[in-house]
Amino acid sequence: MPDSDTGAKKPRSEHLAAASRPAERAAAKARVAAFPYRFPRDRREIGGAFTVEENSRRLLRYFYLERSLAHALGSWTLAIAELEVKLETGRHIFYHMDAARTLRERLTEQEVRLADIDAFRDAETDRFIEEMLSAADTPELLVGVHLVAGRALALAYRHHIDDTDPVTDAPTIRILRRFLVDYEPMLSWAEEAVEAYVGGGIDESRLARWRWHLERVLGSIGGVSGADARNEEPSPMRVDEKPYERGTVPMRDERFTTFNETGDYDRADGTPRVTPNTYEAYRLIFLRTQRDEVDAIEAFGTFLWDIRFRDFDAEYHLARITWDEARHTEIGHRALAAAGYEPFELPNRLSSSTCRGPMEPEYAMAQINLFGEVAILKTISGLVDEARRRDDSMVAHIADFIRADERTHVRKGQTIIKAMTGMKLQELEYKTRELFTECLTALGAIPDEGNAYILTREEIERLVGE
Predict the structure, then answer these.
(1) Which residues contact 280 (CB under 8 A, 6 or more apart)?
(2) Annotated domain spans of the chain
(3) How far apart are CA 382 and CA 363, in angstroms?
(4) How much is the pTM?
(5) Is domain 52-241 in CATH 3.40.50.10330, yes or no?
(6) Residue 375 — pLDDT band, cuts 50, 70, 90?
(7) 175-206: per-residue pLDDT in tens?
(8) Is the N-terminal amide bond of 40 cis, ω within 30° of 0?
């Protein structure tokens, strides 16, 4: 721009002469030389590849992909049969949603309105996610979620850390490094899990072809950031041949035996394993109930998919509860082994997931939150006290932590239900009881008495077995 007085061009700002005064400069240098402490030198330099606008554009795309991956994994929780994979999926759902929450907060600091963040949709990312979800089986799902999308995200985060300004954009660098702390074990586990499937007989070449296909799909949308060189979308696309629909049937691997006609373990076992109505009986029921919270992984993961993009806070709570339920399942499995059982010798109940799987999310959520988790809180404190009195340190320890989790779930559940439905609580409870009566009748858990009778919440608790 010409100078207004001389018509000459102004010098570029980085070439402007410093307005330094010789005497003050010399005095400052002397003070620096006399300063006795030689702290570590900060070698970061100002300068980066991104403006605030470009930084925000990329972070918004990362946010959307992380959020979508959590939804996607949730939609598969019923269809995954292998226990270890279902447990890890419960954890990974939360890792992705927690990354989304952190990116969401950072975006508000980058001059993006919260309402715009939550409303953001990206058709290109949706296209990739829908094709990824069209996996033929769980091994293909792991390849898509982890070995394609997960690896690409981790690489994008590392490149972003290298390319952005290390001083002015230090908050972004910090959060991306935190994500990588979760990503490293998550991707390592996925690689080993895929190897386990191949070692067990899954065709490795099929997985390699699916991986190549999805990498081409991701490349066709400019990669994770949308800024990479693009290739043509591969053809054919599975999602074009058959749109994705989530599963509704709870799957278990062949190590399990299952039952779904009741929630009563003694009835399912035929002969009680221990004397009914004793501490030993309540103890065993508690441990089995925790192991069987594998059905809760399915419930909350499915809810996350069913209400996707409806309310971010509700999604976040669902993701966290899904992780909690994965831990409860793991706790129960380990505790049964510590109590002297081979955990897979104890039949796994499927009545809850069998009923909830096809159900509208608000009714399924009402059953598990208003009936199941509240019922647990009615009894678990007594179990903790009795376990401590008997010096049953294992049960006292795990029940104490689970009690804290369930109290939190009941509170968060109210936020989730409000995001799912505007129904009044009394109407919601009645409709839920009605639907579960119909389902349990169909399963043979109760006799068919026509429309004359609707189960009480206590009966549903006993028969469904939360």
Answers:
(1) 274
(2) 52-241, 258-465
(3) 29
(4) 0.93
(5) no
(6) confident
(7) 999 999 999 999 999 999 999 999 999 999 99
(8) no
